[in-house]
What does this fold into?
Amino acid sequence: MTDVTAKQQALLEARYGVEQPKPDNIIWTPQVEALLGHKSVRTFLPEPLPDGAIETMVAAAQSASNSSALNQWSLVAVTDPALKQRISDTVARSVPVDRIPWIEEAPALLLWVADLSRGAGITKDAGKEPVVLDYLDSFLMASIDAALAAQNAAVAAESIGLGIVYLGVMRNIAKEVAEIINLPEYSFVTFGMATGWPDRARTSSIRPRPAQPMLLHYNQYQQDRYRSYLEGYENAYQAFRRRQNMRDKTWAGSVVDSATSMDYLGGRINLRETVMQRGFKLK
It folds into this structure.
């Protein structure tokens, strides 16, 4: 690689591991460097968010691409400690743990909502029925928009010096959390996001990803090419876990477990029923 700084080289090695092939033509910018430095944070300092942090994250989120400019997402920022603890306790009951410390420690729990309720209300106010909202694509569109918005917010938070971790486990308690935060019909918590000041004494390192040829295809999908890169990624994955003193586990084993163990679903085994109860017909 040419004209790559020591910091950039370190970022590539952290993101792909030492042995995996790495792209040698990255166009480096400060924003690209920041993105490659992303890591999930599950340990937070007992300090509040800086004034304006949530509003800054929402402004960034609102700057994300948005399907047809329909603005079909909302954010519920849970900052009340008692309410946040109630949600954390509810989540903990859905998984084999006593508590979720990163939810408890983070000063803010952000709940990203796929929200068609405004569109439904505006349509009914116009004397019409929101029949299109009964279809799967409407639910998918709102969920995608919530994810795009959240990722912009995550980048903004990290630029301030904050850390975040996504919480798909909120879907384990989709029905309960909707009741706790008083969600209207046609709305659904897609995921949560704990955010706060990272406790760098306890924060883990950048987690490696597969070499790009495992998932990057030009013009045609090259089936089974990923198999040539499995061993390299497995080595990087396990080296990371050893450095972090994590229990012995393979990436392939994790993939198989996620596809075969119903325990992986947690409370999400009934997710379709819950989503339909929220007003989404998923036709």
In short: The mean pLDDT is 95. DSSP finds eleven helices and four strands in the chain.
